[in-house]
Amino acid sequence: MESIEQRIAYKFANSLLLAEALTHPSLAYESNRPHFDNQRLEFLGDAVLQLILTEKLFSMFPGFSEGRLTKLRSRLVSRDALCVYAARIDIGHYLLLGKGEAASGGRERPSNLADAFEALLGAIYLDGGYETTRTIVLQLCSESIDQIAEEPQEVNPKGQLQEILQAISPVSPSYRIVDSEGPDHLKTFTACVEWEGIELGIGNGGSKKEAEIEAALNALSDRRWEGVTTT
């Protein structure tokens, strides 16, 4: 099993900062060390993450208004998005939890994963500085940033669906065109989105892309992934 330092390609000079970032309040409470948990680092990491991604979006979209940039940033820092980033480094495996929290599924709890990811960034910032943290953030968030570059519209159902599902499993949803009809200049396409062997949604559109977007919207509405156990 790789260490979390190997996963993020960063070696802490102060290992106590890493331990603090991974310590859930439940363990701090059980060990009678109420001031040693990741909540303060989470507060710092949230601000650092917001700055790095704000700066990135500001440079990517020089013609966008403040309102549009804010909406794009919200896609990158939502709870679902944070869980995706956390899953990429398997942060749940490394969390230091109290016995009760661990027994009740704390390693998969979205709030724990999101909070720990932000705390980890706060720890990296204190240990290695802004530029080091920026490099790591842009690497860990690169797929989501690329999605926004390709589809910067405010509503991005395909990206939203992928973020939700990758918080559950590293497997991405896949899209298939299952039917098309009509003359070439007036074709209608039918797309299906599947994940972990489950058909999540069907959509129709005047182009393959439109059909896929409709399929993603259908999947987001039906939420057929809920209750699925992945391996």
Describe this structure as you would to a colleague.
Helices cover 59% and strands 10% of the residues. By secondary structure, it is mainly α. The protein is globular and about 70 Å long. The model has no long low-confidence stretch (mean pLDDT 89).
- SSE-based structural type: mainly alpha
Secondary structure: helix percent: 55-70%
The whole-angstrom Rg is 20 Å
Shape: globular
Beta-strand residue fraction:
5-15%
Mean pLDDT over the full residue set:
89
Distance between the termini: 17 Å
**Which residue ranges are poorly predicted, with pLDDT under 50 across at least 5 consecutive positions?**
none
Characterize the main sheet.
Answer: 3 strands, antiparallel
Number of H- or I-type helical stretches:
13
Number-wise, the strands total 3
* H-E string: HHHHHHHHHHHHEEEH
What strand line-up does the widest sheet have? 1-2-3
